[in-house]
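Cross-posting from the modeling subforum.

Setting up a comparison between two proteins and wanted a second pair of eyes on the formatting. Protein 1 (sequence, then structure tokens):
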Amino acid sequence: MKKTPFKTVPDAPQPLSFTVERRVRFEEVDSLGIVWHGRYPSYFEDVREALGDHYKIGYLDFFKNGVAAPIRQLHFDYVHPLQLCEHFTIKGELHWSEAARLNLTYQIFNAQGKLTTSGYSVQMMLNYEDKTILMVPPPFIQNFLQRWRQGFK
């Protein structure tokens, strides 16, 4: 992924960034000692959860506000494999959107700073009770967007 897959909104605030440090565990590798491709969604989720919790838009915040945020799109570009016991950093960026969705990009770097994986996800927002698609962000997300635009003052 060479550039963000999301349209740039004029006058939008900069993306919110967060990083998580990890180490490849035995249960995450295949018989060749490299991370199995099916583990990468959980790596992306590690930083997505940390970012959400940090900015008070984590899964429990969604649940408390009667909103679900299922994945609509998930994309990966595998560049270089991670190996058993290797330390790595997952960087996530939340990109501005005034729609009822979360647009995130991800990059995974090994201990030497080499890009190993990149990708993105889109999460839509639904009413938790009846699973109807929300056309505008719910009030708690509108409040979050206002704080974001103001630099979290």
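Protein 2 (same layout):
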Amino acid sequence: MMNKEAVLFAGGLVVDESGERHFDVRVRDGLVVETGSDLAAGDEERVDISGCILAPGFVDLHTHLREPGMPEAETIETGSRAAALGGYTAVVAMPNTDPTQDCVEVVEFVSKRGREIGLCDVRPSGSITIGRAGAQLTPFADLAAVGVHLFTDDGSGVQDEGLMRRALEYAGELGVVLAQHCEVASLTAGAVMHEGECCSHLGLPGWPALAEELMVHRDIELSRLTGSPVHLLHLSTARSVELVRGAKADGLPVTAEATPHHISLTDERLSSFDTRYKVNPPLRTMADIEAVTAGLLDGTIDAIATDHAPHPSAAKDRPLDEAPPGMLGLETALGVARAHLDCSWQHLIGALSWRPARIAGLSDRHGRPVSEGESANLVVIDPDPDWQVDPSALASRSRNTPYIGVDLKSRVRHTMFEGRMVVRDGVATA
């Protein structure tokens, strides 16, 4: 574990939930100890961030770290490094590992490895059902007692309505959150891409938008019935956004996330049969992209989540119908979001930081205001550069990014986790 540092960030624009102001920020012993204009440096290292933005570190609600079980794709160490380089100070690790994060032993293994590495806060989710098999609920209380706040069978939607109702009732009693992968499996068997014009032209099995929307509707109504919160993962269709907008208008405790790729890439990318564009849920139409983007801009969708899903080249090199779905996201999320969302820095950072922190139950230490006495979980963003991905320079163990040769905007310059500079000038320090 690296030592905490004494740093004076000088000359930047501070952006947090309270607004924007030009302030210097002094950090010592893992905390922000002073903010103000033209602070004099003491014995701290003075870091000039003129022209840059200093903000609370990002929080990813949806990261696949693949450990235990698939270290050839990613490990907690490589995934944590990718997260830090992307500006993340906390990630929620998805439970579809091998073995599944459905018991205290596996959850504690993931937590311990994250603490040992110390590049970001790794918070394991728990699966809703044993083995993510959709038949028997996990021991929610035991998992909550060791720090699990978000439960999901991500990769598989909970198909049984009665089981999901019981899970929501149980979660409501414990004060934890269920996050649903919205997919009616009977409608998606064998599908490789969005069901639409492009799919028909290519002669590929299609994945109807309705498969997502039916479950979005169902779980909104189950939330209405139980009063328990539900978080909807990686929304991808226009109708899903409308359903969530209506739920929020009704005052229901429903939150939602969208991925960078669902605001930037259409299903037409699959016309190349390039498996880098195969994801779950699939890339949709331009009309869906416009609706998801509008949902992010008006607050219907609360958070940008990466669904960082690394796969080794051998797996992604298989034929399109056999290759696993998923793409990298941690190191490119900011760049994609800046290139495709026309909004203020405060709104964008909110979707990457304090709003997901609240959903994940991490707002005691992450997404906090940049003010005296707060934890020093911070990111420094250079807003100006346009850049392209160099796959050989990625920290992730995998290379399945769809953004090679694509112009992205803005880069992370520094990331500070618990008062330690884990990324300095765009380079991980460990």
